[in-house]
Amino acid sequence: xxxxxxxxxxxxxxxxxxxxxxxxxxxxxxxxxxxxxxxxxxxxxxxxxxxxxxxxxxxxxxxxxxxxxxxxxxxxxxxxxxxxxxxxxxxxxxxxxxxxxxxxxxxxxxxxxxxxxxxxxxxxxxxxxxxxxxxxxxxxxxxxxxxxxxxxxxxxxxxxxxxxxxxxxxxxxxxxxxxxx
Length: 181
Hints:
Among the domains are: 2-51, no CATH class; 92-107 and 126-171. The chain contains four helices and four strands. It has helices at residues 2-12, 22-32, 42-51, 70-88, and strands at 96-104, 132-140, 148-152, 167-171.
C-alpha cells in the first residue's frame, strides 16, 4: 500500500509549487496525493527526493498558464488591429511599441564565494543598492529604436551612472514618465 502511495505521490510532484524546505515540499506532496496521518523525517524527505530525482532549487521564474481560448482571443485582437491600421492608413513608422522595465541599479546577489567556516559574508557595493531605475523602451513597427527613457527616483545626480548616447536620464523624485512623454 505504501509503495502505491509513494508512486502516486511521485507522479503528483509535478504539480507542487516550489517550497522553501524539503519538509514543506513533502507536506505539500502528501496533501496533493491525499495521504493522511503520515509524518516524514528529514532523512525520509531527503531520500524520497533523491529516489524520484527531485531537488531543492532557487526559483528562477514564475507565472500562470494561459486559458484554453487564449489563442482565439489573441488572433481576434490582431485582426482588429490590422483592420484599424488599414482603415486609418498608418505606416510602420507611425506604430509604436513601448515596454517598461524596472531594476535595481546595484543589485546584490544572494550568493558569493567565501572561505569555509566564515561566519559573515559581506558584499561590496557602490552604495546604490536601493536605487530602483525605471526604463521605458520604444520601437516602431519598421524596427527603428528610440532612445531609452530612464527615470531615476531622486533629485541628486548619481555620478556612477554613466551617460549613454542612446539614453535619456531624468531625475524625478516621484519616478513617473507621463509628464516627459
